[in-house]
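Because discrete structure vocabularies remain unfamiliar, we reproduce here a specimen of the format, pairing a chain with its fold in token form:
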Amino acid sequence: MEKDSSKPFVLSNYLILVIDICIIVASLFLAYLVRFNFSIPLSELKPLPLITLYVIMVRIVLFMAGRSYTGIIQYVTIVDMLKLYLYTILGSVIFLLTNVVSYYFINQTLFIPLTIIILEFLITSFLLVVFRGVIEIRYSVSRRKNQLDGLRGH
């Protein structure tokens, strides 16, 4: 069965959100690996599942509230990128505030190490922007191919 090449390349909004979540998880683990020189101590691994769940929840709520995964991702603008950075920065600020509460009001430890917050922000921001850029390029190539096929009469 031949693939219908007359339709442009499009990703569903929920697939974009799932990929964003995968990027967030990968960024968090990469931040831990970089922070601990690819040898994460067991004492840091123990709270990692809870931290991962918390980071995913905060980022999903912000992305859903800002609807960063919706719309026509094929036409990514500077405004879209700035909004994406804003949601990512806001999430990192929430992580910092969580650390303040954890340190001063709960158990005098940081819930998420500060270096992890910084690294995760940098890696997440970079990968989300790259992902959206790749989607935009893929869509442009698909659209141009369809235009050429239309001119040729295919």
Remarks:
- The CA atoms of residues 20 and 141 lie 22 Å apart.
